[in-house]
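Protocol step 4 of 6: structure prediction from sequence.
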Amino acid sequence: AVAEVQKQLKKERKSEMFVYVFIIYVAFGVFLFIVYILAAYFLPSMPVASASANIGMPLIQLVDLEEYNLLLFHAAMIQGLCSGLVAGKMERGEVSAGFKYSIVMMFTAYMVFMTFF
C-alpha cells in the first residue's frame, strides 16, 4: 500500500512538473532566438556606429564580431547546461536527472550556432 502511494505521488509529480519543464524549454528557445537576433542584426551594425563615434571619442574601439559570437555561444551552452539541470531537479527531484535535458539543450545551441553563425 505504501509503495502504491509513493508510485502514485511520483506519477502526479511528474505530470505536474511537465508544464514547468516545457516552460524551461520555451525560455531556452526564446534565449536562443534573442541571441540570434543580436548576432545577426545588432552586432554587425556596431562597427559602423563605433567608427563614426570614434571621431569624437578615440577610446571607443572597434567591435570584434567573432569575439561576441564566441561569447554568445558560451552563454548559450551555459544556459543550456543550467536549464537542463534545473529541469531535471524539478521533474525528478535529482539534479543528475537533468543531464539528459542539458545534453539536448546544449546540442540544440551547438546546432543553432553551427547553422547560423
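Step 5 (inspection) to follow. Residues 2-42 form the longest helix (41 residues).
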